[in-house]
Specification:
By secondary structure, the protein is α/β, with parallel strands linked by helices. It is built from 8 helices and 8 strands, in the order E-H-H-E-E-E-H-H-H-E-H-E-E-E-H-H. The protein has 2 domains: 1-61, no CATH class; 63-199, 2-Layer Sandwich (hypothetical protein PF0899 fold), CATH 3.30.2320. 44% of the residues lie in helices and 20% in strands. The strands form 2 sheets. It has a 4-stranded mixed sheet. A 4-stranded mixed sheet has the order 6-5-7-8. Strand 5, helix 6 (140-144) and strand 6 form a beta-alpha-beta unit. The chain is globular.
């Protein structure tokens, strides 16, 4: 089994390469509390999608043994976990829609300026790449003023909501200040405070 650090390094090495390069990621990776199995990697845009699974030791998962000591209880637990995930997905989709509405306001433009100023201080190196959502590209010139020389500003299809990513390959810097990642970062808090925990 490979380490999580190996996976991170491999992902950085093949970033922005073609689909076949990602096939080398197939395998198992230990992340401490869980194991990630990359079982199949999509070979091209029209091929079967990638397939991954995560295995968590039952002591780590913390479910009482009586939740899965019979086949029907195991099925009930699996159903409950799926329903919890559906509720979470629904809540986060609603929040995403509200954030997308926010991106149409002047306050969002102000937020983008503040993010650019902060990232420009943290990443002032020459040759920095700034990535924006395609819909935010009209802000490129204004935001680019906050970064070092020879800044390149690109539209990033992976940014769906908004915000900014910054990368400087020569110094190994990557910073993600997107609303997408900020929303994703709220999931652990939501799981522990939503009342959807299983005890």
């Amino acid at each position: 089994m490979k380490s999580a650090q190996t996976l991170r390094g491999d992902l950085r090495a093949i970033d922005r390469k073609s689909y076949p390069a990602y096939k080398s990621l197939a395998g198992s990776y230990g992340f401490g509390k869980y194991i990630l199995h990359i079982e199949h990697v999509q070979g091209d845009p029209f091929a079967a999608p990638s397939r991954l699974s995560v295995v968590v030791d039952r002591q780590v998962a913390g479910f009482p043994e009586e939740c899965f000591d019979t086949p029907w209880r195991r099925v009930a637990l699996e159903d409950l976990l799926l329903r919890r995930e559906e509720i979470t997905r629904s809540v986060f989709e609603q929040v995403k829609r509200r954030l997308l509405d926010f991106t149409k306001t002047p306050a969002y433009n102000d937020l983008m300026t503040e993010i650019a100023k902060e990232l420009g201080v943290r990443c002032p190196m020459e040759g920095t790449i700034v990535m924006l959502r395609r819909e935010d590209y009209h802000l490129a010139a204004k935001l680019g003023e906050h970064f070092g020389k020879n800044v390149r500003i690109l539209a990033d299809e992976a940014i769906h909501i908004g915000g900014i990513k910054v990368m400087n390959q020569s110094s190994g810097v990557f910073m993600d200040e997107t609303l997408d990642s900020r929303l994703e970062d709220q999931k652990p808090w939501f799981y522990s405070h939503s009342g959807l925990t299983i005890t």
